[in-house]
Specification:
Elements: E1 6-13, H1 18-30, H2 37-58, E2 66-74, E3 77-84, H3 92-95, H4 112-119, E4 122-128, E5 132-140, H5 142-148
Antiparallel strand pairs: 1-2, 2-3, 3-5, 4-5
Helix pairs in contact: 1-2, 2-4
Amino acid sequence: MMAKRNFMSVAFAAVSQNEAFARVAVASFISQLDISVEELEEIKTVVSEAVTNSIIHGYDENPDGVVRISVSIDEGVVELVVEDEGKGIEDVDQAMQPLFTSKPELERSGMGFTIMENFMDSLEVATAVGKGTTVRLTKRLSFAKALQN
């Protein structure tokens, strides 16, 4: 049976310790679905990447910053939105290039957006310099795909 629309949202301080909290919160919420372990791990990884981007790049690890996550489930499609009101991304196309990082001194891999694109069905980035960034990701879960066929 397909899950009817359901949603949750949470906001937390832009500190790196909260990345694990974000993973667990999202995983707990979506585990109500008939989701594979692989899909759950992929979504948790995507949450980590998006939240880490907000904390490190959006806020420069300023704990006064706030990261917001909302998740909705509608007929087997998970939509994940990660928002910050940080400094924004000057060049989204450049930021989305594999291996590009604006913080090489932190030994960042520059693969965050690439990982998000590979694990999800869609990725949209809305950003304004000085105002923040919103990353919207969607994934149709395998059980929902099977029910369509």
